[in-house]
From TrEMBL:
Family: Belongs to the short-chain dehydrogenases/reductases (SDR) family.
Source organism (scientific name): Devosia nanyangense
Cited SUPFAM superfamilies: NAD(P)-binding Rossmann-fold domains
GO molecular function: oxidoreductase activity, acting on the CH-OH group of donors, NAD or NADP as acceptor
Pfam family, one: adh_short_C2
Keyword annotations from UniProtKB, A to Z: Oxidoreductase
Full protein name: SDR family oxidoreductase
Amino acid sequence: MTEEPSVPANYTANLFDLKGRVAVVTGAGSGLGAAIAMGYGQLGVTVIVADINLAGAEATRKTIEDQGGTAVVRELDVTKRAACFALAETAKSEFGHVDILVNSAGSAFRSPAEEFPEDKFNFILDLNLKGTYYCCQAFGRLMLAQGKGSIINIASIGSFVGYPWASAYLASKGGVLQITKGLALEWRDRGVRVNGIGPTLMESPLTKMAATSSSITADFIKARMLRPRLGLPRELVGTAVFLASDASELVTGHVVMCDDGYLTA
Ligand SMILES: NC(=O)c1ccc[n+]([C@@H]2O[C@H](COP(=O)([O-])OP(=O)(O)OC[C@H]3O[C@@H](n4cnc5c(N)ncnc54)[C@H](O)[C@@H]3O)[C@@H](O)[C@H]2O)c1
């Protein structure tokens, strides 16, 4: 009798297969979320492009469809908990299931800590941390009921290290790291995996916007980069595919760094 090979024939053929899955990508109207949404669209995922910016969301939807994929736009303000739950409800009734959630909606505000305006501090925490949490809750419940799902939170090198004039952002991204671990632990034996992606400084509208208000933060980070080049949004797509797919079945509670080695130095 021949023994079953530990890797059966054709095992890897479907490991990264996402065809037929449904993904909600928040902040998909711009930057990193848009790139991940497009990447999923190319793999046959039905993408729910969720953003407060409808024009940006519409542009992402159009690109996905022009490239042969399927996408719908849904207006979402992630800082409104009820809106996150409402979107989870309508997504379930429209598509039957949601398999992937990417939390990419986020922003930054630059200020010295001793002068950081209270309203801006609250704005960043509400958007980056609480918005991520609300979506995890809303879609996590749905995924727990399905017994399967993958949540991917866009964290940052700022989840692990500091840089100047970014105290609210650092607090929010440190929180995103801890939410990722906490929820992964709570949900690990019920089929729902929760991971993160930790990008380096990337080329996106957000970094352009932040650079016009002050380059203090970006200059500090650039001086510590191992090579002087910003990441490109498409360079996150492979990791987003891996974390969404069955290839990462045993991976939960981790932030996969796409930082060009930034944290190694
Ligand atoms: N760009 C970088 O260098 C970098 C590095 C590390 C992490 N990140 C993180 O990646 C994520 C995406 O950043 P980006 O560079 O693509 O920024 P971006 O500004 O290009 O895109 C952010 C998107 O979020 C949307 N958004 C803002 N408020 C929202 C709300 N209340 N509800 C729903 N959508 C909302 C915006 O409309 C926009 O489409 C953020 O969480 C950011 O912190 C970015």
